[in-house]
Design goal:
The protein is α+β, with helices and mostly antiparallel strands. The protein contains eight helices and 20 strands. It has helices spanning 2-10, 29-38, 86-104, 123-131, 192-201, 252-270, 289-297, 338-351; strands spanning 19-20, 23-24, 42-43, 52-56, 59-67, 73-80, 109-114, 135-143, 148-156, 162-170, 182-183, 186-187, 205-210, 213-220, 223-232, 239-245, 275-280, 301-309, 312-323, 326-337.
Length: 352
């Protein structure tokens, strides 16, 4: 079972460069700036940070590329020209958020609140909350494959101006951009012991441990008799992933119904999936129960849906195991923590 779940997400742990207006955020700051100049942006005279100005999604903006101590690009910040009223800030924020959603899809997280005991009512009070860094109008898109993300917020500059900020941030080994993934409200950044203790308090029953994986049982998402697998990260005393196997099914009708029901609930919670493959490897779509079960036994199928979420990703599958001369078919759900996966990959590379 552990090998199956390990293989389940190994094929998806690849990275691509985070891009800004089609320009990969990598290499030197000078080379990145040249690419921006080629797109029509212009350097701002006498600016120590070598900022640029130009149109970003049709809006006049200031572009600030940032590099690390090694001179390598790490992020890009876009500043929409500051406004002197809450109404103007809000309109700019919503307008740009909608434009980003058309490109990036459903946000990973979306907040629209104020960090105040009482919600401010007037525009003046809301604008003052921005001045005091008490405004939490922010939206974030996390891209696991690009190893980074895009954020938009109503913010306050050190220079004293309020504005809308858009940040394209590439993660590095020291980045804390993305928190640990949560499972039933419990962070995968906890130790396996504390994580399991918290699950037991929610009614789950501890069964056994083998090869570094602890197994619990209980109900999950409305289904009883599920198995919960807790796997420890290789180099950290934290949870690497949580996998749920739903009860074994002997008929395609029930197997597909469980998969479809869970997919519907996940989509309502996380938005549209990042990828979805649902097919049988046959010349035509099988219609009979016998033909479908035959293809399942031969592993001539792929039913997999992936959701990128804050802190990692969630993968839903229809799975098959052949053990002790018996076939088992079940729906599986894997919650994989991004931070611990990155830590494991870095340590593994260091070993080479």
């Amino acid at each position: 079972m552990v090998v199956v779940f390990a293989l389940l997400f190994a094929s998806n742990c690849f990275c691509q460069d985070l891009t800004f207006l089609g320009i990969p955020i990598k290499g030197s700051k000078g080379d990145f700036t040249k690419e921006l100049l080629n797109k029509g942006f212009r350097l701002i005279p006498d600016d120590e940070e070598e900022s640029l100005h130009g149109l970003f999604y049709g809006e006049q903006s200031i572009i600030k590329p940032y590099a690390n101590e090694k001179g390598e690009m790490v992020n890009v910040t876009v500043i929409l020209m500051s406004d002197e009223s809450w109404g103007a800030l809000y309109v700019n924020y919503v307008s740009m958020k909608m434009k980003l959603m058309r490109e990036l899809g459903t946000p990973t997280s979306d907040d629209a609140s104020f960090d105040l005991p009482v919600e401010p009512k007037s525009d003046i009070a809301k604008y003052q909350a921005v001045n005091n860094d008490k405004c939490k109008y922010r939206c974030f898109w996390f891209d696991l494959k690009a190893n980074g993300g895009v954020a938009i917020e109503i913010g306050h500059l050190k220079s004293g101006e309020n504005c809308v900020l858009i940040t394209y941030l590439k993660m590095d080994e020291n980045s804390t951009l993305v928190p640990h993934l949560k499972f039933k409200g419990i962070s995968l950044g906890e130790t396996p012991h504390d994580f399991i203790t918290a699950l037991k308090k929610q009614g789950y029953k501890y069964i056994t441990e083998f090869n570094g994986t602890c197994v619990l049982s209980g109900s999950f998402a409305g289904y009883s008799d599920c198995r919960i697998f807790i796997n420890k990260a290789q180099y950290e005393n934290q949870v690497h992933y949580v996998a749920i196997s739903f009860p074994n099914q002997t008929k395609w009708e029930y197997l597909n119904k469980t998969y479809s029901n869970l997919k519907d609930m996940l989509t309502r919670k996380y938005g549209e999936p990042a990828s979805c493959t649902e097919k049988f490897n046959s010349s035509s779509m099988p219609t009979s129960e016998n033909k479908i079960m035959s293809l399942l036994r031969e592993d001539e199928f792929e039913y997999k849906t992936i959701y990128y979420v804050e802190g990692g990703y969630v993968e839903l599958d229809i799975s098959h195991i052949y053990d002790n001369h018996e076939h088992s078919f079940y729906v599986s759900l894997v919650y994989l923590d991004k931070a611990n996966s990155e830590s494991t990959n870095r340590r593994a590379i260091d070993d080479l």
